[in-house]
Amino acid sequence: TWNVLLSFSGLVALIQLLFLPFFPESPPYLLLQKGDKAGCLKAMKQLWGEGNYHTEFEDLMKEKAITKGTKIMNVLEVLREPSVYPQLITMLLLLLSLQLCGLSATANLRESIIPYVSLGVSISELISVIFCSSIIDRFGRRMLLCGGYLLMALILVLLETSLLLSDQFLWMRYCSVVLIFLFIIAYGMGP
């Protein structure tokens, strides 16, 4: 039933496409990109209900004043800009390192369990995104980055230990899977 699983994401995308026209544009987009003050206020009321959004509107106006001379670039212009190459390369390497590291293959599990491990990896990535986005303002990026790397190093030591013991104790293979999930969560929270 893998085809049903794959079509589920298409169904979600179709539902989003059907309902998207009924939602307003984001207020920052309307004000900062389009310069539509009335549309911005209307979108705020539509999204957040009736109320006084003077403070939020003033913050957007300040941001508009600050970014007045800044040119908005599309994706191709960003990719052609040499000044952002170090950031793009760093981001690409970080994303590829998790995808190509082969952590899921290290657990030495039966083939019938591998789909569940893949599902667990996806859930771990989702958990890390939700968790990181909720704590990043409290702790800051530097703390999450350093803590993430330290946690990843500790988990890798534990993972190596569990892999060495997996031939002697079969239950250690499942500990390896849990450690892989924790590694992905630490990776998502930090790097």
TrEMBL record:
Which parts of the sequence belong to the Major facilitator superfamily (MFS) profile domain? Answer: 1-191
Phylogenetic classification of the source organism: Eukaryota, Metazoa, Chordata, Craniata, Vertebrata
> Which cellular compartments is it found in?
Membrane
What sections of the protein cross the membrane? 6-24, 113-136, 143-165, 171-190
Gene Ontology cellular component terms for the protein in this record: plasma membrane
Per its UniProt record, what PROSITE patterns does this chain match?
MFS
Cited Pfam families: Sugar_tr
User: Biological process GO annotation list?
Assistant: D-glucose import; dehydroascorbic acid transport
What is the protein name stated in its UniProt record? GTR9 protein
Name the membrane topology term.
Multi-pass membrane protein
Coiled-coil ranges (or none) = none
Keyword Protein biosynthesis listed: no
Q: Which GO terms describe its molecular function?
A: D-glucose transmembrane transporter activity
* PANTHER family on file: MAJOR FACILITATOR SUPERFAMILY (MFS) PROFILE DOMAIN-CONTAINING PROTEIN, SOLUTE CARRIER FAMILY 2
What keywords does the record list, in alphabetical order?
Membrane, Transmembrane, Transmembrane helix
